[in-house]
């Protein structure tokens, strides 16, 4: 089973830049990827838009198994010069998780033609620990690009369709 979730929610918009909200972009991208996968006949579990992070983690924890993929979508914001894609895994990530995260970050960076910041461990994240890494499964948290970077945002807007297809292709290969 694939668990595909949109980072942030209505009461926590996440990164914002010039009226663009991370919480809106994660929902839009999650829905696009989920539609591509369900069109292929794959089952995708998604979070509900009115859940907060704790609810989402609890619902996944009730259902997930070690072979499942848990993929949480996010966007970065920071200094205007900060750019690129990165994928976080747990500090104790296994080979399967590192492999999945590497394929995702390579696919996203090459599709959007943005900087590849690579795979990072959760202790390198701003929160040090990521709750989405705890449910059983292959857990990855994607920071697609920097909404605060003009080039990243332009590439994301231009190649949104190809981005969704690329992520869906990697997830479909890995879940089978
Ligand atoms: Zn986020």
Automatic annotation (TrEMBL):
Keywords: Hydrolase
SMART domains reported in the protein's UniProt record: Ami_3
InterPro entries tied to this protein: MurNAc-LAA_cat, N-acetylmuramoyl_amidase_3
Keyword Hydrolase applies: yes
Catalytically driven reaction(s): Hydrolyzes the link between N-acetylmuramoyl residues and L-amino acid residues in certain cell-wall glycopeptides
The protein's Enzyme Commission number: 3.5.1.28
Occurrences of domain MurNAc-LAA (ranges): 58-172
Any one GO CC term of the record: outer membrane-bounded periplasmic space
One GO MF term attached to the UniProt entry: N-acetylmuramoyl-L-alanine amidase activity
Pfam families xrefs: Amidase_3
Domain of life of the source: Bacteria
Gene Ontology BP annotations: peptidoglycan catabolic process
PANTHER family, alphabetized: N-ACETYLMURAMOYL-L-ALANINE AMIDASE (PTHR30404), N-ACETYLMURAMOYL-L-ALANINE AMIDASE AMIC (PTHR30404:SF0)
Name of this chain's protein: N-acetylmuramoyl-L-alanine amidase
Lineage: Bacteria, Pseudomonadati, Bacteroidota, Cytophagia, Cytophagales
């Amino acid at each position: 089973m694939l668990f595909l979730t949109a980072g942030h929610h209505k009461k926590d918009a996440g990164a914002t830049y010039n009226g663009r909200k991370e919480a809106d972009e994660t929902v839009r991208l999650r829905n696009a990827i989920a539609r591509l996968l369900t069109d292929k006949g794959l089952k995708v579990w998604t979070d509900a838009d009115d859940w907060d992070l704790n609810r989402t983690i609890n619902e996944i924890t009730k259902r997930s198994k070690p072979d499942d993929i848990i993929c949480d979508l996010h966007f970065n914001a920071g200094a205007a010069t900060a750019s690129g894609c990165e994928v976080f895994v747990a500090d104790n990530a296994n080979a399967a998780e590192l492999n999945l995260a590497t394929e995702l970050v390579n696919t996203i960076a090459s599709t959007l033609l943005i900087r590849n910041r690579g795979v990072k461990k959760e202790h390198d994240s701003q929160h040090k620990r990521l709750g989405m890494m705890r449910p059983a499964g292959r857990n990855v948290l994607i920071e697609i690009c920097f909404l605060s970077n003009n080039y990243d945002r332009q590439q994301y807007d231009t190649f949104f369709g190809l981005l969704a297809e690329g992520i869906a292709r990697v997830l479909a290969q890995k879940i089978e």
